[in-house]
Amino acid sequence: MMKQMQPVLKKTAAATLALAMLAGSATAAMASAQSDRGSKKRNDDKSGKSGIHLNYKDVNGKEWKWAYGPIVRLAAQGVFNGYEDGSFKPRNNISRIEALVAAVRLLGLKEEAEKPENRNAELNFKDFAQLQKKYGWAVGYVAVALENDLFAETEAAIQPDKPATRLWASVLLVKAMKLEAEAKLKMSTELPFRDAKEIPAGSVGYIAVALEKNLIKGYDDKTFQPNRPVTRAELASLLDRVDQQLPEEGRAQAIVGTVETVSGNALTVRKSDGTKVTVPVDANVFIFRDNVKAPLSALQSGDEALVRTFEGKAVFVDVTKSAAANAQFADSGTLGSFTLHADGKLATISLNKTSDGITHIIIYDVDANVTISGGAGLSPNANVVVRGVNHVVKTIEIQS
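Below the sequence we write its predicted structure tokens.
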């Protein structure tokens, strides 16, 4: 085996690099698995396209409720993507090489895997020549997986096209979380499955940890079915559960905080350290709120969210905690513009606010029974204070 390198476990800026290389990078390309031969190219194959693709024609929030969020979140990170024809193929089985590559990317090690020294590594697996021939672009990922102890010491072959089973995937992910020592202490655990004897003795501790960390579950008939192949949708769900338990440092490349303002083309988020970040919103932004896809207008001041960007624009917003119901707010600025309903009542009002030399436009919906006080009436550039609930203005005070 190649010389061991210092393990790098925390997710890094590579997660952001993955976004910028989702579709156009040959080295990042995921060749179709054996089960996908003859199908359309994947979005991250050598298609020459660029951008992020989060809307899959064969995955919807109703039919795939349990996997919809994980699939979208992983695609937004550049960890696990769909196909060029707009499909994700959630029912297809996943191969070992696909699962390994996704795990390495999830750990933020994509950049490491694509370094020349890893891409050109010579590994002592029996089937390494076959790997080089069919999956030459993935050699660096296998090298990094090896360096980070994702393979068992006794594994002599990679078997890239072999379906990833529930047992194999569970062991892989426990290793990815660096919980191997914990797993070895649980080898005498009595697993609660009717088919527990089908799980090798040396893997019992790994399954025990996977269950404890809620990475995987048994079936309603009290079986584990260790040799059952894992589908693409199932792997997405597994990876997402791991992601929620990995260190947060890598998410510095995403914007994590509380939504402060939402305008027609910009989003301002207040981070935990009190700093504010304002980014333009992509026209095709994907908003995930209350476990369903939602329009931009569904974002509320006070929502806790994770925002991922591509080419400087917000392309994915995952609301991790919705704003409290009936959240009251007060805001001030100069009046920019307003719109009216057909009956002549106020529909929206926009405020111009300047912060750090940058002028932001914040648009609010207006309650049908809004109360307006002070001044002679609404006029451009008037100083106003607005108050309301859940981003809907209830009162407007015009200041002299």
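The CA atoms of residues 307 and 317 lie 5 Å apart.
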